[in-house]
Amino acid sequence: MQGVGGNRFAPNAPVSRQDLAVILARYADFAGKELPEVRKAIVFRDADKFSAYSVSAVQMLYSAGVINGMTADTYEPLGVATRVHFAALLHRFILALPD
């Protein structure tokens, strides 16, 4: 975790869908785990809404089959990650991790 910028952490702020992807990608990097590529990354129709720091994390996790879009071609990166989003992503993330 690197905070929200400006030397702040914001522990009570909602977590966006793009930030959840960044958290999982940074954990994989920290743990020295490289996720397998099971499908090609796509450019989501709402790509202009992504923060630059999240693009590679979303692409990596999409390619690994960990995340999906809200529709076939949108991701809603600024949408709030609900408990069900987190549970589903964490489950698929754990399954995708190499031994």
Topology overview:
Layout lengths: L16 H14 L24 H9 L19 H14 L3
Helix pairs in contact: 1-2, 1-3
Q: Briefly, what is this?
A:
The chain has three helices and no strands. By secondary structure, the chain is an all-alpha fold.
Coarse structural class:
mainly alpha
Fraction of residues in H or I helices? 25-40%
How many structurally independent domains?
Answer: 1
Low-confidence spans:
none
Mean pLDDT: 92
Radius of gyration: 13 Å
Residues in β-strands, percent: under 5%
What's the total count of β strands?
0
Task: Note the total helix count.
Answer: 3
Shape: globular
Order of helices and strands: HHH
Distance between the termini: 23 Å
The largest β sheet comes out as:
none
Could you describe the 3D structure shown?
This protein is an all-alpha fold and 99 residues long. The protein has one domain. Helices cover 37% and strands 0% of the residues. It contains three helices and no strands. It is globular, with a radius of gyration of 13 Å. The chain starts with 16 loop residues before the first helix and ends with a helix. The mean pLDDT is 92.
